């Protein structure tokens, strides 16, 4: 049983600490990955504070990037030394997985939020003694807030030897989600209008994806003017402060006669979602990627939905096939069309407290922890 350094959460709503933990031996469908960088996602923080389901002690982290050290017997397409990004876990055999929608795997919740392997065992433990304490682990098939991660094969996405692991780490969840919501779930068409509510890193990725799709109007909505200013440099054609009392009418002015073709909520705030839906024009389509705590609801005028033919859907992980979308986004970056470096602030892992604080305050759009200097 080997050991590694990890960001350990000893109790829900408690602090993280850098501690030594023990790793179980990898299974046939797993790889041992030396983590070089991990993005901090709001899902990590929402699990840590109890907003989303998790338990403690835990090792979270689900935007890992690193180099394979060892592979299980069932993994034949990867080898030690390969660079990989880590994304969500999925079974690969259910109807959703086999039809190209692994983010809606029937086992998504237990495999990503269950805190254990699919067989119920713990990949990580607090120590290596006979009285070892199982940790909440296998988070999104990886638990990559650690120098070494045991990753399920479905989470592994091979990337080129020349790819910058720290730069591309956030593609595993947040940036993939924003781009995929535009490209897959909403399937934004050229010449149409798009409104994006909340331009953190997920929303900024959506802005860039909408530009890739050739949207005529890309309208960013946020409470922070500096974020709106950045969104303009990434492709937004118009911006609206989220505190504006007249958002719906402004949307209709920008996208006549009665609203936008597409809208995306990245906030998870019910009141914002309600406003977003009202901004839809005839036969408009809206989606949510921002995750509120379970049980939150929104009020919808059913008659308005009916008479205008509006749609409102949920979107998990951008409805992405990570092995396809992630390489596509890396290629767009290489062509200068997806400049995610403008979103990222890097931190040495020893400065994790500052990285978390900056993420919570909004100072950092996307914080990435570096495990190597």
Automatic annotation (TrEMBL):
Gene3D superfamilies: Medium-chain alcohol dehydrogenases, catalytic domain (3.90.180.10), NAD(P)-binding Rossmann-like Domain (3.40.50.720)
PROSITE patterns (UniProt xref): ADH_ZINC (PS00059)
Keyword Lipid metabolism annotated: no
Domain (Enoyl reductase (ER)) ranges: 14-369
InterPro entries named among the record's database cross-references: ADH-like_C, ADH-like_N, ADH_Zn_CS, ER, GroES-like_sf, NAD(P)-bd_dom_sf
GO molecular function, one term: oxidoreductase activity
Pfam families linked: ADH_N, ADH_zinc_N
Record keywords: Metal-binding, Oxidoreductase, Zinc
Record bears the keyword Oxidoreductase: yes
Top-rank taxon: Eukaryota
Cofactor(s) the protein needs: Zn(2+)
Protein family according to the UniProt entry: Belongs to the zinc-containing alcohol dehydrogenase family.
Protein's UniProt name: Alcohol dehydrogenase
């Amino acid at each position: 049983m080997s050991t590694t350094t990890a960001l350990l959460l000893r109790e829900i709503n408690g602090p993280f600490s850098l501690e030594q933990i023990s790793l179980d031996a990898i299974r046939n469908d797993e790889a041992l990955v030396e983590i070089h960088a991990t993005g901090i996602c709001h899902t990590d923080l929402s699990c840590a504070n109890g907003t989303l389901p998790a338990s403690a002690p835990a090792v979270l982290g689900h935007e890992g990037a690193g180099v394979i050290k060892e592979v299980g017997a069932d993994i034949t397409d990867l080898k030690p030394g390969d660079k990989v990004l880590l994304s969500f876990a999925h079974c690969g055999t259910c109807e959703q997985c086999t039809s190209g929608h692994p983010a809606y795997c029937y086992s998504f919740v237990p495999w990503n939020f269950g805190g254990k392997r699919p067989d119920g065992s713990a990949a990580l433990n607090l120590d290596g003694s006979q009285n070892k304490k199982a940790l909440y682990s296998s988070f999104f098939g990886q638990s990559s807030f650690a120098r070494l991660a045991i990753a399920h094969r479905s989470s592994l996405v091979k990337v080129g030897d020349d790819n910058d692991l720290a730069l591309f780490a956030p593609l595993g969840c947040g940036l993939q989600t924003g781009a995929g919501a535009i490209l897959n779930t909403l399937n934004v068409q050229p010449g149409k209008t798009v409104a994006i509510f909340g331009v953190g890193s997920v929303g900024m990725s959506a802005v860039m994806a909408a530009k890739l799709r050739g949207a005529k109007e890309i309208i960013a909505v946020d409470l922070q003017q500096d974020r709106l200013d950045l969104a303009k440099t990434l492709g937004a054609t118009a911006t609206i402060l989220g505190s504006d009392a007249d958002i719906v009418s402004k949307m209709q002015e920008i996208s006549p006669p009665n609203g936008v073709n597409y809208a995306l909520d990245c906030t998870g705030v019910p009141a914002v979602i309600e406003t977003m839906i009202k901004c839809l024009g005839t036969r408009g389509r809206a989606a949510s990627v921002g995750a509120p705590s379970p049980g939150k609801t929104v009020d919808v005028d059913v008659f308005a939905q009916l008479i205008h033919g509006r749609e409102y859907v949920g979107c998990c992980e951008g409805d992405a096939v990570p092995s396809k979308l992630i390489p596509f986004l890396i290629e767009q970056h290489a062509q200068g069309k997806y400049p995610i470096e403008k979103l990222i602030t890097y931190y040495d892992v020893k400065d994790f407290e500052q990285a978390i604080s900056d993420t919570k305050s909004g100072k950092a759009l996307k914080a990435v922890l570096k495990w190597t200097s």
